[in-house]
Design goal:
Oligomer: homodimer
Largest sheet of chain A: 2 strands, antiparallel
Order of helices and strands of chain A: HEEHHH
Largest interface: A-B, 41 and 41 residues
Strand content of chain A: 5-15%
Distance between the termini of chain A: 14 Å
Shape of chain A: elongated
Strand order of the largest sheet of chain A: 1-2
Structural class of chain A: mainly alpha
Number of strands of chain A: 2
Number of helices of chain A: 4
Chain lengths: 165, 165
């Protein structure tokens, strides 16, 4: 009986983490995908959009992949052979999400601070709303990475100490 | 007897992967750390160095961390309790290396191609040798990430199918 309760509470915890991961990845993709601002500097029309920056497009794509995967995993039948591959897939998805957030963050940092050595000027002063929205997408994407890390460490703990469940 | 051979071949394979990971991370750190070029454009002195770009400094740091960790793991005594944490540490190191390579690659891409929307010009034309060396560091760092992914998937396989070893 005690054992059954442990199994149940483990399932609830994993399920909760996977639902949170689904929410975070989809939210990050939507917030990044809708980031868009038009601005004018004297007579020059200036438009900022996520797909002007390859790193932001990559961030959007990996979060969509992460979201779709998180959704599919929720509907895997409990007896499916696919569960054998879920931990390996979790590793790959965690690495993809990590690389998406890191690449986007590196570019966002240049957008915010510029790089005087390379002569790249910061652009956040011109398109402040856009920058805030990208910042929100990055924060949400980072939450998704942390949740996936927890899922991974949790699965590892269960796999290495199967008797504790 | 057959079982003992499997255990041995598994140990040799893991050891080989860990030595390769050590070489790749240390090489990536050294190649990035020594990247440096002076150039002049008419009368303007121009210097390119890894620590002018926060993403490259981050890449160097995570590869040094990865290298030190890879070295320490080689000397863990076989009976140590630390082995319980090694898979979890492998997850964290893999994520750190992934984020380092991704951030540096995102910036290197802007250095190579520029970003016309943001008004950031490519700089690789002025400091070609520097760009090639950074490219080499990125390729080596990427190899380190792939090796760590293999180590992780291999440990997972062993943890989930302990009878196969």
């Amino acid at each position: 009986m005690h054992h059954t309760n442990m199994v149940k509470s483990k399932r609830v915890c994993t399920l909760l983490l996977r639902v949170l991961a689904l929410c975070a990845t989809i939210a990050a993709a939507i917030v990044m995908g809708t980031s868009h601002e038009k601005s004018s500097f004297f007579t020059i029309q200036f438009e900022a959009k996520y797909n002007h920056t390859p790193a932001f497009t990559y961030f959007l794509i990996v979060n969509v992949i992460g979201g779709v995967y998180s959704l599919l995993v929720l509907f895997f039948p409990a007896e499916s052979l696919l569960w054998r591959f879920v931990v390996a897939l979790d590793v790959v998805i965690t690495m993809l999400l990590t690389s998406g957030v890191s690449a986007a963050l590196a570019i966002a940092y240049v957008g915010k601070k510029g790089n005087s050595y390379a002569g790249w000027l910061p652009i956040c002063g011109q398109v402040e709303g856009y920058c805030h929205q990208v910042g929100g997408a990055l924060a949400t994407g980072f939450a998704g990475v942390i949740i996936y890390m927890l899922i991974l460490l949790y699965s590892l703990h269960s796999a290495i100490h199967p008797l504790h469940l």
